[in-house]
Amino acid sequence: MSRAGDGLIAQLRRPPGGRDARIMLLAQCVDRTGTGVWAAASVLYFTFVSGLDARRLGLLLGVGAVAGIAGSPLAGRAAERFPVRGLLIGCHLLRLGTMGLLLVARDFATLLPVVAVTCLGERAAKTLEMLFATRVAGEQRATYQALSRSVANAGYAVGAGIAAIGLGVGTTNAYRALILADALSFVLAAALVWRTREPAGHGLVVAQGDGVVVDVPSTAPSPWRDRGYLLFVLLDIPMNLDDSVLNVGLPLWLVHHTSAPHAVVPAFLVLNTVLVVVLQLRVSAWVEGPGGAAAAVGWYGVILFACCLVLATATGGGAWSASLAMLAAAMLVTLAELMRSVSSWELAVSLAPPRARASYLGVAGMAQSVQKSVGPLLLTGAVMTAGPAGWLALGAGVTGLSLVQRRAGLRRLTALSSPRVADVFPPDRRPADRS
Cα(first)–Cα(last) distance of the chain, in Å? Predict the structure, then answer.
């Protein structure tokens, strides 16, 4: 059970999973602080220090996003053969190396593979963190995920603040100092992960709610042959669109289609960060278990539609009304994010067979990476080109797909709960998964 009433600080002191979970949460906070530094400075670094024009910068970031898609399934596959703890340390050290290469890379041809490997390692690390949490937190993984989201957002905020200092100085050495700060975060995160302990066995070991560790058979089904799970992953891509709406849609819509002052744009991130830190635990307490996660998927669609409706009506009126409308949209998309961050992970775990959970979660992690690649293109190339009608169409489409996802998730949960079906059919052969 989630102890939302205990408060964030109390739960961080006693997280699900005990000592190892507490150390891992600290490692995640350190990692996200470094990531926040680099995220805030990367575009300007490539522009002013590396001298890339807009076309090459866009290609660089696009290739990095595509490379990140491969990180999740590769990490999941590797976690079935090697300890998650060692793999995660390896990802941190890999990114440490690529950050060092950025300091000496000068031409576009060198930067391209460096950025690609960095993005692949980052995505793989996030998947491995999910696997670690699934194993040490057991049935309390939703509470752990809420704590993880809270510390991650706090880390991003601290990192952005550190980056602001370097960007204010604006010299080449200041930019390089920010890269070194990101690299230092990987060293510290790897050292913290080294201090954790991992249950005996590799990726096929899962933690149960009572803390008992069960080593399941080595033979396991492939997620790539499981139609029901692949359908979940496919539908989970639009269930991650809140990320692109917040980071791309809201700023561009405000600048080009409303009379709100540009100074409102930074408030989107501030509002998002505060709401996630304050409300994530409460949402996780409400969205408890697979059934609650399936219900939250439906609410995700409804809330995102409300956000799109507000955006569609924000074009009229003066600066004050437009500003209030845009801030309301930011609040709504954050609420959608809160729903998604818990429900998506819970369903990804619950819909996967325990004996192949590592590889299944690796495939599930692709949904967020794919969205990061295609989401901004969808918003800029179709939604905002169509104007207010584009937002309404997007909201209606995501709402409809959320209901399909909810129904498919509940149907698969029912199939997995049937002892006869679970024993007789592998996931890719179950009748319920093919309907």
Answer: 33
